[in-house]
Write a structure and sequence with these properties.
Two copies of one chain form a homodimer. The first copy, chain A, has 382 residues and is of the alpha+beta class. Chain A has twelve helices and 17 strands. In chain A, strands 9, 10, 11, 12, 13, 14, 15, 16 and 17 form a nine-stranded antiparallel beta sheet that branches. Chain A has a four-stranded parallel beta sheet with strand order 3-2-1-4, sandwiched between helices. In chain A, β11 and β12 form a beta hairpin. Chain A is globular, with a radius of gyration of 21 Å. At the A-B interface, α1, α11 and β16 of A face α1, α11 and β16 of B.
């Protein structure tokens, strides 16, 4: 039983969903969680409770791991550089990870790599914001370079004045990333895995449906032409290579009349890849473990012609067990994934996946199940 | 987070493989393991170390569980009856479980239910053995009614004299189950799940390939006619109903010229059902948890036309990591399941599953991968 140990920094649902993959592979999973009640800490025996911003906590945790990887991007880059210098194997490494941590760094590097991006600028005052907006056209998108997720840290602003109070609240000297607002037909995501020795595997392109900046549904494969899909995959593979990513890597894209434009990056398993647990021959969670361990990567083909994933957001009802029971009774083919989280309105507390022959049918079933779970008993609410 | 807790008595690979299912379902899994290093105890946080033959240990363990279920059949029936009387929910209950614990009880009950069995008798002396053998024809099969598994506790004997020393070693008054030796074309297994309120679900019939009394391969579906398969499934459903089984239940059968004949029963997830993890829409492990929690059962259809499972038996090489790496590199579509067990020659330490369009191809791939893992680098050895 000499199999390696993978340490995951962060105890959220991504670390939780790595656990089944680790059990199958026979690799030991360790988790550094903020709280002993975190989603992953509930299901993994080998948990350390600590703050990932505390270098000593990270260092202690890393001691028992053959490789360190992540559930989220909130670990200070400088801590990771120190650990790496001390001999800890960090995957993805800090030089790659910084592109998922800092959106300004990401834009600069993608532009260097000639990857299609929205027009962008780093702005640090009201005049620069006005200049950028007048140049690319209003409204524009403003983002905090670090720390945003699920629509947080992102604003659509109609004018420089509109941005003034936010900018002020960030304190003097703060800079923002300003981006052109991209008009798109749909949003796409491409999942890639890349291992240290350079093997890469790409999953089918999916469509993501966002509501209020939060992913609600993922449809695999996206209803786009083969040529279009290959072009999106090539861009994702080019970025993974260019940034030296190791592990699973997600690229969110806007699909526009002029081609795809890269929106965001994530260097870890991603919500847009949850469908792979049942929908692909190798789940993104197994693939991530294989990639960070430099094991050969698994097959990425789909297990059925169509797969739909619907996030389960908390509703008004705290106890989901009734909805859960109804959901199973109504559709014995729905795959449920509960994250062990306390229900709060709008919080992602689970997801459901359906697979089948017909795109419309799998989508309707997944939506219905997610609605049931949050307590919409007619299963139709969005 | 008010989801129920399922307690599993036994810390083997079956309990281990329930863990990924429990994580997805959001139900809490507790394990009573003999040792803290047991296969399941390595991957489940909530483990009690204790002996399942110790009533107090069982009682303590049961306190934290909404339902008690099993990784193996070695819990004394009388302990379970006591626990049940004290209000513990035991599934399958002792009245059902005894049929999987005691082969003589099983034969008597199946005969009552008019289920096709080999001719049998409970024998307790050399003269009775001779009488039975002379009646049904030599050789005959002798089994210890309790405690056998993987070919242990089972002997093929050519004559009464052949049985004498074994019978003697069991002590005075010992009885054995004598069975006619059945000539069969192949061995089949049928997996059923049944919930307390009586819902039942049956999986496609599989062929099992046994070598020296140990299951080596499982092929799904079995290459038999639809009519034949339905008849085998009906028998399994009839037994599940007749015995009042709750949970997943496996029936091993001989396929003979005259129809199927029941060989053994198991009242828990079973080696013949490991293929369902990737090969069926609902794995036997998820199905077992749903059944014992009286949740609606999941879909049992296959995810591909053909699925093969090959057990990984320990070979001469203790460290399997090299073979593991080769295995992934050679076939990115193989699904590996390692049990975290110390390798000993002949010990089941994992299994591999392949899915695909062609029966011969998936079988060859699974065999090859299992051979690789045990250290046969040409991947051809049996």
């Amino acid at each position: 039983v000499d199999f390696p140990a993978v340490g995951v920094v962060g105890g959220g649902q991504l670390a939780r969903m790595m656990a089944p993959a680790a059990i199958g592979l026979g690799v030991r999973l360790r988790v550094l969680a903020r709280e002993a009640t975190d989603s992953a800490a509930q299901v993994v025996p080998d948990v350390e409770v600590g703050d990932e911003r505390d270098l000593d906590a990270l260092r202690r945790f890393a001691k028992g791991c053959d490789v360190l990887t992540f559930d989220h991007e909130h670990v200070p880059t400088e801590h990771l550089r120190l650990l790496q210098a001390e001999g800890v194997v960090v995957r993805p490494g800090p030089d790659a990870l910084v592109h998922a941590q800092d959106k300004s760094v990401m834009r600069a590097r993608l532009t260097q790599l000639a990857v299609p991006c929205p027009r962008w600028a780093v702005v640090s005052g009201i005049d620069e914001i006005r200049g950028f907006g007048d140049d690319v056209g209003w409204p524009i998108v403003l983002k905090t370079p670090r720390g945003g997720y699920d629509g947080k840290g992102v604003r659509l602003v109609e004018s420089a004045e509109d941005a003034a109070s936010w900018l002020e609240s960030l304190g003097p000297g703060a800079s923002l990333l300003a981006e052109e607002r991209v008009r798109f037909d749909r949003e796409l995501a491409v999942l890639v895995a890349r291992s240290p020795h350079g093997q890469a595997a790409v999953y089918p392109v999916v469509e993501t449906v966002q509501v209020d900046g939060i992913c609600r549904e993922v449809l695999a494969p996206a209803a786009i032409s083969e040529e279009h899909a290959v072009s999106a995959q090539s861009i994702a593979l080019r970025i993974a290579e260019g940034l030296g990513v190791t592990g699973v890597f997600a690229v969110e894209m806007f699909d526009t009349a002029g081609g795809v434009v890269v929106n965001e990056l994530a260097m870890r398993p991603h919500n847009s890849g949850h469908w792979t647990i049942e929908g692909a021959r190798t789940s993104q969670f197994e693939q991530h473990l294989r990639a960070v361990l430099d094991l050969p990567l698994g097959e990425t083909s789909m297990t059925a012609p169509h797969v739909a994933m619907s996030n389960v957001l908390g509703g008004e009802i705290a106890d989901m067990y009734d909805g859960y029971l109804h959901c199973m009774a109504h559709d014995p083919g729905v795959h449920l994934h509960m994250y062990g989280k306390v229900v709060r309105p709008g919080r992602k507390v689970g997801h459901v996946t359906t697979v089948g022959e017909d795109a419309g049918d799998v989508r309707a079933r997944a939506r219905h199940a997610a609605a049931f779970l949050r307590g919409d008993s007619d299963g139709t609410a969005e």
